[in-house]
Amino acid sequence: MDANLLNRMNVQIRKAYYSFTRYKTDSTFAMLYHEKPMLVQELSAFLRVSDHLIRLDNNHYFIIFTHTNESGAYKASQNLLNYIDNHFNNTSTCIAIDNFDINNSPTIVFNRLMQILEATKKSSYTRIENENILDKNIN
């Protein structure tokens, strides 16, 4: 990954951790996969203005659902998938959601999201998964 993108992602994760520590506001990290390139403007039209979106490559987008716990992020992800499916007439999009843990470094957050996303692409009917899918794949 480009060092500039990695730095932007690190800064946004650290900001979310700071907001939690200082103001006790939850955030949720997510990774979106779409098989065809999308413009950030297209995707951001389906998100709240307060959410953060970073395009990592042609297919992967890092999202921070600010001021949102994991269950709220799951609902937002369902809405996002619905918008994307209808807009692109394509149902290949997947979203990985990770639990919010200020003890995880940005590198750990990224790696966990990518593991969840890969498992989601292989074996999920809902196309939105959290870390529980990793436990299912172990058994």
Q: Explain this structure to me?
A:
The chain has 5 helices and 5 strands, in the order αβαββαβαβα. Strand 4, helix 4 and strand 5 form a beta-alpha-beta unit. A 5-stranded mixed beta sheet has the order 2-3-1-4-5, with helices on both faces. The model has no long low-confidence stretch (mean pLDDT 93). With 139 residues, the protein is α+β, with helices and mostly antiparallel strands.
What is the count of DSSP helices, taking H or I runs of 4+ residues? 5
User: Which range best describes the helical content: under 10%, 10-25%, 25-40%, 40-55%, 55-70% or over 70%?
Assistant: 40-55%
Largest sheet: 5 strands, mixed
Summarize model confidence as the mean pLDDT. 93
